[in-house]
Amino acid sequence: GDYLHINESNFSGAKVNIFLHHMIEDNYEIASDGKITKTVTINYKNPYPASDCNLERAGLCLNSVYRGWVRIYVPEGSKLVDSKGSQVKVTSYDELGKTVFEGLASVRPQGVGSFSVTYTLPFTFEGGKLPALIQKQPGLVAPEYKISVNGRLKETFPLRSDKEIEVKK
Hints:
Layout lengths: L1 E9 L10 E10 L4 E12 L19 E10 L3 E6 L6 E5 L2 E10 L3 E14 L4 E7 L8 E6 L2 E7 L4 E6 L1
Parallel strand pairs: 1-9, 2-10
Antiparallel strand pairs: 1-4, 2-3, 3-8, 4-7, 5-8, 6-7, 9-12, 10-11
């Protein structure tokens, strides 16, 4: 079946990740021949103002520009088609029996941003349903997930723990 794990590391130096809200859109495009193209989009929102980061004034720099190293783990053999929103060229490699798409996301205080990858899965849609496992990053507050098939919203949920779903046309 399908697999998705999003892992982010805060490279900002501040603690901005505690201010971020995440919403993940997971869209399956299933062609008539069963070929599956997926787009995973991470939408970020930081609704809070920037902290006073001036050390001379003894400012406590908690909220500043977010720079997150993003790794998206998907089934091994998946092929990157397109990417958007990365501050660097998205790279692809295999690790731990999965294919990984890696890039750098950036969001300013009181701003929004997104990071997305479009890729093909190494198998086809057969049998009317596709089992999928979504693994949650430990320590991340429950991000909102939206699962769509061919542009139609099928399911929404906060990801509080690892979750198994069935994707149906």
